[in-house]
Predict the 3D structure of the following.
Amino acid sequence: MVDEIVDNLRVAVIGLGEAGGAIAGDLAAAGVPVVGWDPVVDDPPEGVRPAASAAAAVAGATAVLSVNAAAVALEVARGLAPALSPGQLYADLNTAAPGLKVQLAAELEPTGALFVDLALMSPVPGRGLRTPGLASGPGATRFVALFGRLGMPVEVVGARAGDAAARKLLRSVFMKGIAAAAIESLAAARAEGCEEWLHDELADVFEGADVALLERLLSGSAQHAARRRHEMDAAAEMLTELGVAPRVCVAAAGWLGQLDGEGARAA
């Protein structure tokens, strides 16, 4: 079945940077004919045929993968629209707001190409084609059928462009929030002279983390919102004295204040 897919698949990768290059290289290694284009990268991955232009790259392609940056995603789509054909898959892999994905789908709809909002859920380096993904939009089901059989762990999460992007960003609020909290607390611990101690404390939390911890964080924040808000106010005051901007502390205190107010109204 994989051989049959490879025989009937031709992929254009627009953007051969770290992510696009890794995915293009893996596709080529799997035997898929891959044409790539990047205005900056001069040396494409092994097995990837460079195109003279972006339009030349997508001509005759079964699927087009746009892997550049959200800032230029709409510009790239507009530039490629005249070269696209009905039935082609156009997958945008850039991390972007759902609204941009909706714009991209609307921009490409007149071409007859099938738009795919593809959200990559892990870093691509080291994973390449095997990077887990979520797909939505008119071409999502077909994309999953093709690329899933080539080893890409991707699942359909909705019929609308933006559905996949929304799920990725919702997860990003949590993951990047954890990173911000770690950065802020360790910066304060460094100023206080106990960074190594706190680093070990945080490591212990991660090592022992399970689903019960998440539930305790959620239920405990609601139940003890008032006390915890005052605790974060005190932490923010301390960080300010240490010369560390208490961005996470202030945000946490704001949420706890809201939970406290909601609890008071419910009572």
